[in-house]
């Protein structure tokens, strides 16, 4: 019973990290600037057409988020399967993943530079702008094509997913990550004019956002190396006993 309770509690800090990582991924220097042109492409109008309300970007944005969520959920299930396959080596898997994540965090803090993380392996979604299906395909392409850009954040969540033996843990964590990345995208489509103004105000602070992401990666990496997530889970159970009833 204790194992089930611990798994329930351990999921909460991991899910919080996943949500924050998704939001920071949206605000990252290689995602935030392309949001307006992506919305314009998906709706089949120019950026000026979006601002004038010529056509709504909400439905295409929804299908875009569904597309990227499809890929992330599949990745999450694969990570859980991988974790179960190497269940007896999960301690070593967690430590190894933690070291890699710390190195990626140092890249974001510009302590070291990893060249391939500065590139974007973009996938061409074809000439399908202006349709819901095209937006869905673009979401699939985004999830695959921006892997070098959002790879450190995504790798962090996949590492957390692989350290749990529960079948649905990976899918759930990646679903939370997709929410963190997708909800701001949907809000940008709904409130397009306000969103563009807010994006312009955020752009001067992109380097700071990148450093925050680096600090989060390092913190999670250290937690994986030291086994702090289970320790934190025990603390949650002791502090909030009602969490034991979640499972």
Automatic annotation (TrEMBL):
This is Cytochrome c-type biogenesis protein. Keywords: Cytochrome c-type biogenesis, Membrane, Transmembrane, Transmembrane helix. Pfam families: DsbD_TM. It comes from Paracoccus laeviglucosivorans. InterPro entries: Cyt_c_assmbl_TM_dom, Cytochrome_c-biogenesis_DsbD. Its main location: membrane. Residues 16-225 form the Cytochrome C biogenesis protein transmembrane domain. One of its GO terms (cellular component) is membrane. It is found in: Membrane.
């Amino acid at each position: 019973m204790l194992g089930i309770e611990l798994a329930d509690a351990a999921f909460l800090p991991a899910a919080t990290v996943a949500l924050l990582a998704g939001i920071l991924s949206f605000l990252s220097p290689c995602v935030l600037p392309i949001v307006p042109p992506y919305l314009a492409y998906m709706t089949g109008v120019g950026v000026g057409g979006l601002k004038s309300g010529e056509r709504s970007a909400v439905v295409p944005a929804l299908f875009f988020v569904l597309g990227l969520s499809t890929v992330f959920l599949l990745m999450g299930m694969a990570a859980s399967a991988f974790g179960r396959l190497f269940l007896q080596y999960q301690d070593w898997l967690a430590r190894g993943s933690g070291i890699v994540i710390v190195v990626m965090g140092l890249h974001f803090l510009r302590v070291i530079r990893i060249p391939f993380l500065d590139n974007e392996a973009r996938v061409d979604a074809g000439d399908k702008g202006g349709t819901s299906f095209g937006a869905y395909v673009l979401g699939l392409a985004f999830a695959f094509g921006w892997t070098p850009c959002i790879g450190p954040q995504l790798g962090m969540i996949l590492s957390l997913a692989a350290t749990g033996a529960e079948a649905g843990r990976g899918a759930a964590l990646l679903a939370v990550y997709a929410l963190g990345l997708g909800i701001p995208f949907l809000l940008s489509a709904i409130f397009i004019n306000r969103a563009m103004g807010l994006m312009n105000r955020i752009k001067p602070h992109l380097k700071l956002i990148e450093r925050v992401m680096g600090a989060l990666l390092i913190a999670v990496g250290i937690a994986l190396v030291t086994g702090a997530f289970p320790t934190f889970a025990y603390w949650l159970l002791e502090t909030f006993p009602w969490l034991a009833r979640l499972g």
